[in-house]
Amino acid sequence: MSLFIERMVNGLADGSIYALLALALVVVFRSTGQLNFAQGEIGTFGAFVVSTLTLSGLPVWLSILLAMGVGFVVSAGVERVVVRPIEHRNPGAVIVALIGVFLAVNQLVSMIWGIDARPLPSIFPDEADSFVTVFGAPVRIARLGTIGVLIVVLVLLWLLFTKTKLGLAMRAVANNQDSSNLVGIRVGTVLLFGWGLAGAIGVLAAALLAPSAGLSGTLMLGPFLLASVAAVLGGLDSPIGAVVGGLLIGVTEAFIVGYVDFLGADMLFPVMLVILLAVLLLRPSGLFGSERVERV
Amino acid sequence: MVKTKRLMALAAVGALTLAACGSDDDSSDSSASTDTEAPESTDAPESTDAPDSTDAADTTDGGGSSDAVYVVDTEACDDPDAATAQIDALKIGTSLPLSGAPAAVFAPLAAGQQAYVEYFNAEFGGINDTPVEIVILDDEYAADKTKVNVDELVFDEEVTMLAGVVGTPNNIAVQPDLNAQCIPQLWSATGDKTLANIDEYPWTTGLLVPYAVEDRLWAEHMAEEFGEGSTVALFYVNTEFGLSYVDAFTELAAENGIDIIAEETVDVADNGAPSGQMTNLVQANPDAILAVPSGTQCSAFMTELGNAKAANPDFDPEVYMTATCANPLFFDVLVDNGGSDGVYTSSNAKFVLSPEYADDEAVQTFLDAMAAYAPDTNAGDQSAVAGWLSMELAIYAAQQAAEAGDYTRAGIVNAARNIDYTPSLLVDGMRTSMDANDAFFSEGTQLVQWSEDSKSFVAAGEVQDYNGSLGTYTP
Amino acid sequence: MNVPLRFTKGSWQNWAGRLVLFGGVGLFMYRAVNEWSRSGLGLLVDAMIIAIAVTGLNLITGYTGQLSLGHAAFFAIGAFTSATLVTGKIWTPFLDDNIWTPGWTLLASAVVCFLVGMVVGIPALRLKGIYLALVTLVFTEAVRAIFKYDEFSGVTGGATGIKGFNYLPPSWTGLDGRADLVTWFFYLTLAILVVVSILSAGLIRSRIGRAMVAVRDNETAAAVMGVNLFTTKTLVFGLSGAIAGVAGSLYALKLTLVEADVPLFGLFGSVTLLVALVVGGAAQNWGPFVGAMFYVFVNDYARSVGEDPSSSLLLGWFVDSGTTINGLGGVTFGVMLILFARFVPFGAVGTMRMWRSKVVQVVPRPPIPAAAAPEAGAAAPTLEQGHNDPDATTQPAASFGNADSSSLGDDEDAS
């Protein structure tokens, strides 16, 4: 039992990272119908900003908040400068542009901060003995904290979407840009805010992941791939779906390593393919996605 | 210009066809060597065409009788004349990852290479008063890019030789071409045994301690520590590097009465904390763990190890990590929860920032050169030492050839294949040499252990010198 | 003078235009093989191999509108098929040591990838857009993992991959073994690229091709018009995969080794192919070739900027010689892609065609019934028209999916 709990918590903690990143992807998809290929890299960029800020003496939580602001600006900038000028012309061109952003940001990181991996302090206690015992299972506080952050972000997003005017506008734009325009919503600003929000969430995910994985330019490559699978699994326009998808993938990963002897961690993708096909062939728009999402 | 080259190649090919009478046997065991410059060539080829006769037992003592001189055969070259043409200016090409994920581990190697060449030119004025040139290209650790780079180096840059190319798949990818073109491919930064295939690929030599030698060090140490029936768990990256390491260890474990009770793999692209694998390792609770992560995964493994030890008081295995992790940066800067304390690894090179070598002359030269020529690179990064070594050896081989009056590509390979020279940055007390029966350069290494107190590696055993023990390549 | 000039398809002006185009490319190839250095020629061969794979991708993504990030998997399957067969790892009747001649493995790869492609096409019946893209992407990574799986290492070589084979030019070519290896691969790849391009162009003009375009433009309408979605999607996915597989075979034979970790066999490969397709121009006959050339050579250029910024055009003013800036090459290429997407959104070929159509237009011969508009309109009428007139070409769009692209109607280079 204790072993099961340990694996479950590990899986949920990894899954929380995927879920956060998937949430960011969903926020972008809801506003512009794009899969933001550069989402993970913007997160990595932000995590390096966190590193620079903490090294200059700021407390970790403040560094992360400031870096989330940087992520907001960078991501909104990508929307305004790169995506919007081409958006209505060709979806293929938008994909290429976002891949260009991915590449440029990824390499910019190594231009600015070099290629050496570096440590990043955690906002949670992260000493060797920072764990609590739950039913006999040692559970690290940082992992519980990551899951907690996911819950907080989810609640804040829910409040934003349902209780604020801005959230209402975002939902309206997600539903129909042209009609939103007609009723006086400033669609451009709303899109900008959606992308910025996603950028900030992406930075948060990276800043939570880096302390255990080590901060390097390739920090978010793997998580981004799994997060996009999570977003698709849950439904590209559903925040709840993104979270469920992310946690599901995290737990699957942990259980493959833990309980399936003949498959190692490196066999995650064949298993994911089976799960993905099983879900999508029954529900082509994902677990919680709405059917009308067929934009590309 | 291109056309003339093609004509020359055609002429050479024609001559070759006449000479070889249509024999398409391209292995080097046709014994006729026309290199009169090499004085020992008369009896040497005899030993090369009987690889089976080189028994490991003959050569372990490193005794004089087995030091058969190797002479490379240039008849099979695409252009035999080019292989025996005098060299005016030495130009060395290399290809390694300067960007992408593996660059974090390997890019300092390039800095070390650059620093040595510049140091050599500044200090000694080059070879025959001509400065040595080096061209470094980025391949992102992708074998296909290495191939493109090597084509560029050979045909556009017209380098004399390749040296210090990084990576097992990368070196194997370019090996056939370079051997057919008779371009020396010296001091390849991999410990894979296929690079010692002296019969098929005489123009290729390896730099690193062969993985099998390291495995032997582990297995012998484990057997000594825990006796018969000791248990070990393996943690390795699922790549050619990890497998070649683990395969060799599995054999040696059986010989030494060690039980492998668990195997955990990690994907090469997975840079996250291996928490699931660690949980399994804790469950298996072995006497020892052999960890073979990729260079970028070393620290995450040790961090996770520290957490697991703290959470499970019963879990206290001895941990052995590959020499590719033997980098103070991974142990000190990135792991701060005690997970690295007492971890064993091995190295045949001096740890340049260790207090033990504070007064060492060679180390001081290295640090000064790095500060002068590669100030952006952390000189404490042991990868830079490997790069330095590869160039030191490459230039040494060229110098030897020049001194012997055979300053040609073939002369350089002969000098390398018969080298008996211990570079200044290797730990004292081991013999590093090659000859016709010994295709591995460095088979000596030393067990070291990370000490959290002194923040450095400390020797945990004598220098183990297995020089000559691997002989030549056996598939 | 009336601008734009209008020429009838098949007129002498039309043929003259084609002659200039093909002559130009032919001259380029001739000069490449005779005057370029071997490393330059090697890059060109790589570009052509990618062009072949992109030609395959163009069928399913460009013409049929099914966004696939799975073509690196076909590329990898082709590569491993060749490597496995030439090293005799699979029992084969009539062959003593099971060792295949490399040339025949190209066909074997095509067959294997065709079958796999048909299977991959089945989910495409249910999934659309990004959903399909992500499933095919996971398929790519799954295939890569399976190639590394230890239990199958007898066939795939496992994580070690397969090494130590090569494809020397056969004696009838008169080429000299290893010394002319690049030349041999140049001719081989060029020949296959030409064959594949002709087959692809032929397919587009066939009944299946019209069905493909109809599916892309409006799947429901196509089904109503009698297009069999199941057959069309699985068949085209199969053909598309087969072509990518042949490219993979060539790649393996040129590289002389396969390993699951070769970047082109994974996510990176799929993205590369997609970028090359879009940059060249989706649903354009010349798109794959132009896109692949752009990808390989511009990437190489960007890399050289990173390695030696002082000799590049702009940065040379700011940077001392001898400095290398880590990551600059990647940033340069990334920015180039962003600019390309902004200013050449229909890809090089699509955009050039748009510009050209302002000056010269090639209109189809008037079909026997009546009225052939150069602007191909909705799918339904062209489909009908196509039944009457086999010469009419009907690919209207330079994008996958539903972009507004009716301005790209004409296509003179359909063969």
Topology readout:
The complex is a heterotrimer of chains A (296), B (475) and C (415).
Chain A: H1 2-32, H2 39-55, H3 60-83, H4 91-113, E1 131-134, E2 137-140, H5 141-163, H6 165-175, H7 177-182, H8 187-213, H9 221-234, H10 239-259, H11 268-282
Antiparallel strand pairs in A: 1-2
Helix pairs in contact in A: 1-5, 1-6, 1-8, 1-9, 1-10, 2-3, 2-4, 2-8, 3-8, 5-6, 6-8, 9-10
Chain B: H1 2-20, H2 45-48, H3 56-59, H4 80-83, E1 91-96, H5 103-124, E2 133-138, H6 143-156, E3 161-163, H7 168-181, E4 185-188, E5 204-206, H8 211-226, E6 230-237, H9 240-255, E7 258-266, H10 275-284, E8 288-292, H11 298-311, E9 318-321, H12 328-333, E10 344-347, H13 361-373, H14 382-403, H15 409-417, E11 444-451, E12 456-465
Parallel strand pairs in B: 1-2, 1-3, 3-4, 4-5, 6-7, 6-8, 8-9
Antiparallel strand pairs in B: 10-11, 11-12
Chain C: E1 5-8, H1 12-35, H2 38-63, H3 71-86, H4 102-121, H5 129-148, H6 153-156, E2 162-163, H7 181-205, H8 207-217, H9 219-224, H10 229-255, E3 257-258, H11 267-280, H12 287-307, H13 328-343, H14 347-357, E4 360-363, H15 379-388
Parallel strand pairs in C: 1-4
Antiparallel strand pairs in C: 2-3
Helix pairs in contact in C: 2-7, 2-10, 2-11, 2-12, 3-4, 3-5, 3-10, 3-11, 4-10, 7-8, 8-10, 8-15, 11-12, 11-14, 12-13
What's the gist of this structure?
The complex is a heterotrimer of chains A (296), B (475) and C (415). Chain A is an all-alpha fold and 296 residues long.
What does this protein structure show overall?
The complex is a heterotrimer of chains A (296), B (475) and C (415). Chain A is built from 11 helices and 2 strands; from the N terminus they run ααααββααααααα. With 296 residues, chain A is mainly α. Chain A has a two-stranded antiparallel sheet. The longest helix of chain A is centred in the N-terminal third of the chain and has 31 residues, at 2-32. Chain B is globular. The longest helix of chain C is centred in the middle third of the chain and has 27 residues, at 229-255. Chain C has 415 residues and is mostly helical. Chain C has one domain (5-362, 380-398): ABC transporter involved in vitamin B12 uptake, BtuC. Chain C starts with a strand and ends in a 27-residue tail after the last helix. Chain C has a two-stranded parallel ribbon. Chain C has a two-stranded antiparallel sheet with strand order 2-3.
